Structures are given as structure tokens and as C-alpha cells.
Amino acid sequence: MDSLQLSCKKVTISLRFAFQDALLRTLGRGYTGQQAEQAIHNATQVGFACVDVNLIYGISGQEIQDPIHDVKRCMALGVDHLSAYPLITFEHTHLGKLVREGKFQEYHERKRARTQKEIAKVCLAHGFKRTSVWSFTKANASAYTTVTRESYLGFGAGAGSKVDGEFWFNTFSVAAYNKLIKPRPAIRLQATDKFRRLHWLYWQIYNTRIDTQKYKAIFQRDVIKDFRLLLGGMKLFGWIKKEGSVFTFTERGSRWVHRFQMLFSLTFIDDVWTHCQREPWPKQIILS
Q1: DSSP labels for the chain?
Q2: What is the mean pLDDT of the segment spanning 188-211?
Q3: Is 112 inside a domain boundary?
Q4: What tens digit of pLDDT does each residue of 78-106 get?
Q5: Which of 40, 51, 211, 249 is deepest in the core (most CB within 10 A)?
Q6: Domain boundaries, position 242
């Protein structure tokens, strides 16, 4: 399995997978669909407050009904939180290299969008609520999240942290990380106030809800005045609606944000991760 994280009776099983063995081999995973299903079953039997499963879809050779079947199996196994991610062929990954060499065919964008829409339908029909552009949470369960929190600490190679407006990443090199006697960030960003506000808004959009009162409490500013054009445009296109002091995203809006998340991941995040994979302690990373 990719990882198994335990904290305060809350478990996240980061299984980026489909249940089909052939697709797992395409992804280079060293386990079978049956083993993955058994791991989920074991986690749900332990008594953790939240069991979260990350499903990956949009794999070459996968039909739309395959991830839908996977989602239904997860529901039957009793998961509390489900995140469904399309395959992102980052430059530093094996599949990313094959795509750039013309040896691996990516999923068609329309097919990916249709799959995403069908996954949402199944989750909502099973009583789950959308809690981010990627994720759905069972009623009365606590949504699992890290990056949407005001502050968080990441432990281990490649982990990110955010405290008091400052961001940093640990080195992506496991060997270099294991040699450390004291913590030493590989990348550090001291954010400006404007960047902090943009970062906050970005992750609230990811979270599919923008709380205007929360923004005012954190920044002592009016989010509607600060981002009038952006919020007005999203409202005009039917992506958001205002409920009291909170802007919530419609299903249509969530699907479009999902596409922009893909674009963001394949540009800025890919640049950072690719650079960090090549160099354990970068002196500087310039994003274009």
C-alpha cells in the first residue's frame, strides 16, 4: 500500500488504486485488488473515527463503469470518507515520462469529466455529502483534511507544513531526510499578506465553501470586496450560490473547479515536485 497513517483514532488509507489487477499493474502497484479490499475491511473493523480511501480513476484502459464499481465496493465496505482523484501524470513519475515519450495514452478529457460526474452521483445517492472538489463524506462523519486547515505539520520525506502564514516542505529524498539530526526544511516560503489571502481562498474553493465571516475574522477584510470579480464571475456562471454568510459551490461549479485543480497540479505543483525529486536541497525554485 502507498501509506497507512494513524492519528488520534483517525485513519487515512492512502490507496491510490482501482480494484482491477490489470490497472494496478499499469500503475506499477505492488499489490492486488483483493489485498487492497482486505486492507479497507481491516481498517473499518478496528474502530477508528474515520476511514478514508483515495481512489484513482482515469487510467488508460479503464472504462467508466470500473471506478463506479470501485466506489460502490468502498461504500459496501463501510468507508467514512472517499476521495476520487483522476490519474495525474506528473513529469517525475514513470507514467509521466511515458506520456512525454508518446508511449502511454492519457484518458480523454470528456471521458474523465463524465466519470467524475458519475462518481459524484453515486456518492450523493449513498448519502455522502461533497466536502471538497475531490472528496465525499458520510453523514455525521468527520471530513478528513489537511491542506484546508489554518495550520498543519507534516512529518516525513516530502511532507508539507503551514504555520502562521509560513510554508515549507521537507526534502523529498528519503535518504537525505533520514540523515537529519534536527529538522531542516528543503523549501521555505515566507508568504506576504496578499499571498496568504489568495492561498486561503484557493483552498476554500477546493473545499467548495467560502465563509465570508471566517475570512473577516482571519484577515480583518471583506472577501467580497477583495475578490469581487472572481466571486461575481463564478456566481454568473452558476458555480456558487450564497447561503447566509457562506458561498457554496454547486455540483456544476465543483466539476469545473475540479478541472482547474488538474491544471494547477500539472503546472505549479508538478514544477515543485519535479525539481525536488531531482535535488534534495534546492537553492531556489522559480515557478513560470
Answers
A1: ---EEEETTEEEEEEEE-S-HHHHHHHT-SS-HHHHHHHHHHHHHHT-SEEEEEEEE--TT--THHHHHHHHHHHHHT-SEEEEEE----TTSHHHHHHHTT-SPPPPHHHHHHHHHHHHHHHHHTTEEE-SSSEEEETTSPPP-STTSS-B---STT-EEEETTEEEE--S-HHHHHT-SS---SEEEE--HHHHHHHHHHHHHHTTEEEHHHHHHHHSS-HHHHTHHHHHHHHHTTSEEEETTEEEE-HHHHHHHHHHHHHHIIIIIHHHHHHHHH-SS-S-----
A2: 87
A3: yes
A4: 999 998 988 888 777 888 888 888 888 88
A5: 51
A6: 193-249
